[in-house]
Amino acid sequence: MYSKTTTIRNKTGLHMRPATEFVAVANQFRSQIQIGRAGTDDAGNAKSLVMLLKLALTQDTLAELRAEGPDEQEAVDTLVSMIDNGFDDIGSMPHNP
Amino acid sequence: MACYHGNPVSRGIVIGNVLLYKPYTPQVGGRQYADAIVERKTFYHTVVSAAQQELEQLAGKLQTDFPDKAAILMAQRALLTDVVLEEEILYLLSREQPDVAIDTVYRKYAATMSELEDELLRERSMDFLDLNTRLLRICEGGRNVDLSRLESPAIIVTTDLLPSDTAGLDRKHTLGILAETGGENSHSAIIARSYGIPAILNVENITSFLSDGEQIVLDALDAKRGCVYTGLDETALDAYRRTAAQYAERLEQTRNYLGRDAITKDGTRVEILLNLSSGSNEELAYAEYADGVGLFRTEFLYMHAGKPPSEEEQYAVYSRVLRAFGGKPVILRTMDIGGDKELPYLSLPTEQNPFLGNRALRLSFSRPDLFHTQLRAALRAAKNGNIWIMFPMVTCMEDIDRAKQFVQKAHDELLKQGQTIACYKLGAMIEVPSIALLSTQLAQEVDFASIGTNDLCQYLTAADRMNPDVARYYQSYHPALLQVLGQIADAFNAAGKPLGICGELGGDQKATELLIGLGFRKLSMGVEALAAVKRTVCNLESKTAQRVAQTALRLRTADEILDYLLMKRG
Fold it and tell me: Which residue in the list A4, A9, A15, A37 is annotated as catalytic?
């Protein structure tokens, strides 16, 4: 298992569009990935847009990502960097990590 | 004739035929799609891929003009194959029919979303309901009722519009939208505004009052009350057609002339300035379309609270306005209180003749504390732009001398306190006949002046236009007013001092040519008149305008002058 925490940067938080991009990237990994509010049980499948929306991770939320599987480290690092880049430049995100 | 009311969420007026749009209402349960679980799952996957296709097509249509809307539909498409959603539905399929499974899961998530704190996320609940409806319709084998391809122009009348209905709307043929539900920020309202389609929402039971093909008038011109008229006779319809045509023309003017400079055909530049009454963002949004502010009324600062505004409060507001206009001149009029503008906290005595009483600059003199505070705030704000300070209700040279002493006192005090003061100009508002007749002398004493035609007309004609018995004596085109305007213009032009008009006449297109002919080069007006006056200026010649003014000055009555001007405009 590999995990990392980071703060949601972009103003609107993980709204529909950033969340859609996020899920699309998450789904390209084989590991099981969880995203949640750090320090709480509030977590869900990072490959599910529904879960992501339900979590309502708004700006300044401390989020935790954990993955378990063959590409766990790469999955977490890629998704964390996506969050850290604030989804400002979604077009340049790696679609085939 | 009948009339129905609702919330006018997108402005405009339109006459057209009703298209009753009945959105598909799902029937869930009681239907046997497939017995075997495997078949149910296969069926479910077929339905999902059909829904994906519909959404892709819809998004494709919107991609160029409305990338935002297309993105929302593509996000909806992504939701369709969400792992968690799918897992739950497939699980339910082991004991339920596909429609029940879909409905259960999508409703559950719609409910979850609608309970979220974040308002934007809460609205996403609509996407789940929208998808649910789409999937259930496909389950039942229903076709996609296509608002994106109307056969003829129509006003769409419906109970409510789902995001996918509005997103694919046929812009060319949708004349207007009427719905029984929806507020200012509903999907329907937002899309109606972005498409520029007039819309009235929240019209109770409108779908049961109107029938398909019926001709109606949708009047969403008023900002507060939208009206739907049915059963109008030809005369009434004609009146609305004219209103609609005028509105369309105004819109076009706005689009075409708002961003232009006002230059006559023979090259005379006329400055078009704004009258501001609150410095709200709405007003300031027009800053780029104006050459400055011809009249910044400061009364609102004194009206909204139970006490006079502090220096800091005023400083902040003045600075904000000055910054919004960059280096363009902003004429700030010191408080114009008294007369018809009373203030309880000042406990001013009731006067027999308030308009001839202790008002405006006179009141400022009798309340030096208020005046001093306002001048300090204005002088400090000078560094944030190009401020011209103007005194209202000046009647004699002593007024100017005295006002200047007040300014000097505030100036010296600020310097002593170590403040720096940027350049500013001092001027007079000409609205009393006595100072108007002294224009030549006045022009030597001030940096600029602006004419308040409303009060000047009222004082010249000794008529209160609010009093219906004498309102007819108050004539905006009174020959005497024209004479006075001409004299003031001559005096200030001879002295080379800036002169503007900031009364109602400044924004009156009928008067534009006349005013330019009289020698005015600065007209100030409310935002609503900007485009129309710019258009008028751009389409006239200053030489012709001079002749028009000379002719008008020879006429005997206000009616003759107005008739002449209307005739000239054709």
Answer: A15
Assess contact for B338 and B357: CB atoms under 8 A: yes
pLDDT band at B568 (very low <50, low <70, confident <90, very high): confident
Give catalytic residues of B, as residue numbers.
187, 502
Q: Which pLDDT does position B73 carry in this prediction?
A: 86
Residue A70 falls inside a structural domain: yes
Please give the residue of chain B at the shortest CA–CA distance from A18. Answer: B75
**Min distance B67 CA to chain A CA atoms (Å):** 12
Helix (H) or strand (E) holding B16: strand B12-21
Domain ranges of chain B: 25-139, 154-253, 258-569
Is A12 among the domain residues? Answer: yes
Three-state SS letters, B333-385: ECCCCECCECCHHHCCCCCCCHHHCCCCHHHHHHCHHHHHHHHHHHHHHHHHC
pLDDT higher for B112 or B392? B392
The pLDDT confidence band at residue B340, using thresholds 50, 70 and 90, is low
CATH architecture assigned to B258-569: Alpha-Beta Barrel (3.20)
Contacting residues for A53 by C-beta, under 8 A, at least 6 apart: A14, A16, A19, B113, B121, B124
Q: Which residue reads 């596909």 in tokens?
A: B98
Any domain includes A94: no
Taking CB atoms and an 8 Å limit, are B121 and A53 in contact across chains? yes
Fold match, B25-139 / B154-253: no
Answer whether residue A41 is part of any domain.
yes
Please state which architecture CATH assigns to domain B25-139.
Orthogonal Bundle (1.10)
ipTM above 0.90, yes or no: no
A16 inside 8 A of chain B by CB: yes
CA distance B152 to B469: 52
Query: Which chain A residue has its CA at the smallest distance from B106's CA?
Result: A50
Give the residue-averaged pLDDT of A44-63.
89
pTM for the model stands at 0.57
Residues of B with CB under 8 A from a CB of A: 71-72, 74-75, 78-79, 82-85, 109, 112-113, 116-118, 120-121, 124, 127
Helix (H) or strand (E) holding B523: strand B522-525
User: Residue A53's domain is classified under what CATH number?
Assistant: 3.30.1340.10
Chain B nearest-CA distance from A15, in A, is 7
- Cα angle B272, B276, B280 (rounded to 5 degrees) comes to 125
Tokens at B260, concatenated: 């232009």
CATH code for the structural domain at B154-253: 3.50.30.10
Instruction: For residue range B477-509, list pLDDT tens digits in order.
Output: 999 999 999 999 999 999 999 999 998 899 988
Question: Is A15 annotated in the active site?
Answer: yes
* Residue range of the domain that includes A48: 2-88
Q: What is the pLDDT, as a whole number, of residue B144?
A: 65
